[in-house]
Amino acid sequence: MSSSLPDFITYFLNPAHYDHPVDRIELVQTHISYVLLAGDFVYKFKKPVNFGFLDFTTLDKRRHYCRQELLLNRRLCPDIYLDVFPVCRQGTGFCFGGASEPVEYGVRMKMMPQERMMGRVIERGELNESHINDIVATLVPFYDRAAGGSEIAGFGTARSVSVNVLENFDQTRDFIGKGALQQSQFDAISSYARTFLQNESLFLVRSASRVKDCHGDLYSANICLADKVHIFDCIEFNERFRYCDVASDVAFLAMDLDFHGLKELSDFFIDRFVAASGDKALLAVLPFYKCYRAYVRGKIGLFTAHAPEVDEATRNKALAQAEKYFLLAEKYAG
Asked: Per-residue confidence at 51, pLDDT binned at 50, 70, 90?
């Protein structure tokens, strides 16, 4: 395990340090989180990083965003997100809760059945139209209920969308030619995006009714197909990634299905969603948002691969996935 892990994470890698039964601990890292899978519970902590689009550098900010994470994710998973808790020093170690000064904050969740995670279902070749119908039946009422209004609608204009889309090109420019992203891909994708963003009226029409307080990170890694559909881990750290066209949200899952070689199920998902939501105009912006989402996943792969605290296996896997995402983005741009 990397020596650059925080002391409290290292401490809680020991199953004996929990007050409930734990056989083994699994640590999952992303570019912004440490996640401990421990028995019946999941403990999630924010890394003290600043990527510009998110800032977790102070304890107060991490506590604030933990609370946001709890609140926002309870919209779709009220029974999974349990509480926000402090990590405190206790003797030579640490405890969850406690009376001393908090050194960190985390979010506690119920462990969902790992074998029912959508990614695992896909790996086993078991994903089918019934699962897609269940996802659509969960999403359509969620978007109907989701907050909208003029302030949120403003995030759907071409100008606002361009902030998110063009930022990705600025943040990946230094990675060109260092594995995963080639200059020709960068040029083709950025050119396509800039051209599409000139359709100001198209974005304006959609922003009037189809821009909502969405999920923001809707893909298979954040879906569990258990006794019911659990869609978790929405974007809590930056409203401009969550306040978006519903098309941008569903394009992410459609792109993800394409990424996994499930084009027929991807098309079926969009067909069912359009039929259930009545949003036929979504199809006009779908390729653009698919391209955007694929590029974002590629970018995150680059960030993960170049994070100093990740091990070589994680780095290599992240780079390989990033390469595949950039190829997919290039295909949408074509």
From this structure: confident
SS3 58: coil
- Residue 123 sits in a domain whose CATH number is 3.90.1200
Residue type for position 50: N
Query: Is 260 in a helix, a strand, or coil?
Result: coil
Same domain, 28 and 120: no
Which pair of structure tokens corresponds to residue 15?
């199953």
* Domain range for 317: 116-333
| Cβ-Cβ contacts under 8 Å for 309 (sequence gap 6 or more) | 2, 4, 5, 29
**Where would I find the H helices in the chain?**
7-11, 59-73, 118-123, 129-145, 150-153, 158-172, 183-196, 200-209, 239-242, 246-259, 263-277, 282-305, 312-333
Mean pLDDT of the region 110-123: 97
Q: Among 64, 88, 111, where does a domain finish?
A: 111
Say if 1 falls within a structural domain: no
Helix axes 282-305, 183-196, angle to 10 degrees: 150
Confidence of residue 242 (pLDDT cuts 50, 70, 90): very high
87: exposed, middle or buried (C-beta count within 10 Å: 0-12, 13-18, 19+)?
Answer: buried
Q: What is the DSSP string of 264-308?
A: HHHHHHHHHHHHHH--TTHHHHHHHHHHHHHHHHHHHHHHHHT-T
**Which pLDDT score is estimated for 1?**
43
Domain-ending residue, one of 54, 76, 111:
111
Are residue 106 and residue 122 in the same domain, yes or no?
no
The C-alpha atoms of residue 237 and residue 214 are separated, in whole angstroms, by: 13
Is position 254 within any domain? yes
